[in-house]
Amino acid sequence: MKSFATLTQMTVFARIAESGSLSAAARDLHLSPSAVSKSLAQLEERLGVLLVKRTTRSLTLTEGGRLFLERATSILSDVENTLDTARQFGHPHGNLKLSSSIAFGTKQLTNIVGRYLEAYPEVNANIILDDRYVNLSEENFDVALRITADTHWGYAARKLACIRWLYCASPEYLANHADIDHPQDLTRHACLVYPAMTLDGAWTFRRDEHTQHIKVTPRMTSNSSLALREAALEHRGIACLPTYLVAADISKGHLRVVVPQYRAAIVHTLYAMYYRSKYENPLIRSFIDFLANEFGDTPPWERDALAASGMPYAKEYPRELYSLASA
């Protein structure tokens, strides 16, 4: 009678190979190092093949180990896909691991996820905020929310909302500096610059079908819109900030839109990125559908910001003005 390797043993072996050590695999799997070592020994005994060469400082796969890993990885992926297919007939439950940029996650995502968890009490969420692009497979994320204009990814993605930006400053700053009636007037002001919102060092302004590029000298530059918002609230100058970040500040009068007859010409897009094969999982599908329903045609923060600033809502901008940097 043949002695088969169990799925658990294959899972443990795959984690050992990926992490490069038994102790790291034990931490990832929430097992003791002795349990991981025992599982590997039992697997090698069942197969009659040495899979791993171990020394005090390193761990390497044998030729048999590399071949077995390739097949085991394929089998485990098939098993997961089979489980996802079965899950589509059930209710969303389990752990949802999400990735988001720091600014959007802080200001918008946590509240949205909270409402989703209220609707689906059998779901738990793990939100990781990081401005770098994550690898969904290597880091085991279910959904990554990214604000960008790039469309070249290795994942499926659903467009959720356009992310627009406003030029704004505190009332205190504006009261103590020269009037701003035209974008050109900004060349005489302290500018708080987010690099992804410039084209060759210029801020861009759009009115009707006309676009202007105003070269500004940054008083402060940062790759964090959160940092620039704080500087604007502290009366340091004029910043170009996303509506999802400053809608409440504008509604409360803490920030004021400058030259409201103009719009920032550069626009980004919010996407939910995921593996297409996982979309049949009701946990992932229901969350993405929930996001789309929450945002609608016009996200709530966009309505609030434009209503408070008196600016008209614009559906689209010319494609050539879309920034390729993430926000």
TrEMBL record:
Keyword rRNA processing: no
Protein name from the UniProt record: LysR family transcriptional regulator
Family designation: Belongs to the LysR transcriptional regulatory family.
UniProt keyword terms in alphabetical order: DNA-binding, Transcription, Transcription regulation
Pfam families, alphabetized: HTH_1 (PF00126), LysR_substrate (PF03466)
One Gene Ontology term from the biological process aspect of the record: DNA-templated transcription
GO molecular function, a single term: sequence-specific DNA binding
Positions of the HTH lysR-type domain: 1-62
